[in-house]
Amino acid sequence: MDKSLEKSLLVWLKAQKKACGLFLKLSLWLGMISAVAMVAQAYIIATILDGVIMGQQVIPLTANAQMVSSSVSIDTYTPHLIALIALMLLRALLAYGRERASFEAGKRLRGHIRAAVMDKLTKLGPAFIKGKPAGSWASIVLEQVEDLQDFYARYLPQISLAGFIPILILAAVFPINWAAGLILLLTAPLIPMFMILVGMGAADANRKNFSALARLSGHFMDRLKGLSTLKLFHRGDAELKVIATASEEFRSRTMSVLRMAFLSSAVLEFFAAVSIAVLAVYFGFSYLGHLDFGYYGAHANISSSTDPQIVGIPFSLFTGLFILILAPEFYQPLRDMGTHYHAKAQAVGAAEALITLLEHPEPEFVGHVRINSIETLSADNLEVFSVDGTRLLGPLSFELKDNQRLALVGPSGAGKTSLLNALLGFLPYKGHLLINGHELSALDLAHWRQHLAWLGQEPQLFHGTVRDNVALADPTLPDDTLWHLLAEANISDFVKAQPLGLDSPVGEQSSGLSVGQAQRIALARALGQKASLFVLDEPTASLDSQSEQTVSSALNRAMAGKMCIMVTHRLDQLDQMDTILVLDKGLIVQRGDFTTLSDTHGLFQTLLRENVESVADIELVPLSASASETQLDSDAPLDIAAESTKGDAQ
Questions:
Q1: Global pTM?
Q2: Which distant-in-sequence residues (6+ apart) come within 8 Å of 396 by Cβ?
Q3: Other Cβ atoms closer than 10 A to 602
Q4: Distance in Å from the first CA to the final CA of the chain
Q5: Percent share of the chain, pLDDT over 90
Q6: Separation CA 353–CA 140 (nearest Å)
Q7: Non-local CB neighbours of 444 within 8 Å, separated by 6+ positions
Q8: Structural contact between residues 458 and 540, judged by C-beta atoms closer than 8 angstroms
């Protein structure tokens, strides 16, 4: 990974620590207090062991003299034992408190990042979300955000402790033995230096690992959703091989990351062990009399005894015991930082994908204007763009007034759904899109959407109950209102027939319901909005003839006296529309009502002929040559529409 990129990612990660609140600082302070208690504990242990083992022995001043020692009562060290037990309990409590504070800091951070990601996806809208498989988004929201936990809970506090604890121990060691302090000081940089050398590629490896995981997640979920299609086209074995290849790639990348982790840990343990061994050798030879430097004053003269009856230099193991007890603790913060260094590498790898998403440009809808109702909707030289800046539609102009219905027709890819997405606030635009004379970008989007009733071609019901889905916009709706909405959508009889009624479960992807039933429940949910404008994107495209008639009749009743914009390919049912816009390649090529357009040579007439032929084929009704010839007659389209409607009813 580029160093400048990694640095910018680290700056972003550290800037997010505000979301941790006081818990990150609390974790750090508890760690510092625990370090002070650890030094005090080492002092007491060294004092007790020195007193019990040596018993205040002295080195004689003459060659013929004997080692002298005085007896020590265990009662002398009772206060030390009490203090030692108290310090052990204190450190245990501090460790528990630090773990809880660290976890809470990471938990708050993850909640903050997930909220930011979900808010961003909401602002970017479905047009952007459909650009990636659902598995990739799941990987970002779940796995990659989860991998930020240890960076904030472990790594960031450990950076400060890795500086504080060694300095604290050096401050305790240097006044006692400058040689031991110098050994600690000179060997300390070896651990972070080799940690950096070994872990230089860890962030890049983790980033590639996350990319492989996102691809595997998206690939697997897409194949799982299309399992029946794969079976029907005999692609099951081939897709198994593809998934096996993707899994092997992910396994290989994961093993490379683990290899780095184990290598780094081995290096840290090796240099820590070597450094402690150097200290042990120094004190061993010092006590054997082969080394006599590093002490202040006479050799090993650190006893607090001032008894004039003791003739000789007091000999004590306190210095060696105290420093050797502290030596592992001196290197432990550096080793912990090495262990948590991989948390940093994981966080850097995850941050790249998160920043790419969170800093993605979004439609500029920052208005605060609120409207009470929709009286007029107009576009003037409107151009709609994708989230990456590609023009999808326009320039075009049109106007829609209260109680009017507008239909958008045209071949696939003409820009019909893009116009709806712009109207819903999901795509950026240029030109003017005015609601009651106010620019759409100046409106409060959340309030604006409360005036809309949306119904698409693929009903999206959520895992829960019928009640949860119908009352999605207002969970406080009473049961009477819910039953009324279901009755308006012609689905109340089906729900009443279920044992649990409104509490009947709805599975993921509307499992347990037919497409027509799911669409009518979605229609009941849309009717609950009490909307002024119905936005319909081929609401009957995936329905059978009977369900189509049911949904269409329910929509016609609900839209009475309301404004409507509908995208449809069923041109034979547009006689109730006030205005029809025919789009092709993002431009309006025709406009007018059904009768006018069907009498005019152009794209609409071509699409109408193809639509009626396809309906005739489905209904197994032969399309006579005379019917095709009479397409140009003024009354023929209306007759065809009526005949098609009768056929659907049958």
A1: 0.63
A2: 379, 381, 382, 581, 583, 586, 587, 588
A3: 14
A4: 65
A5: 8
A6: 7
A7: 367, 368, 369, 370
A8: no
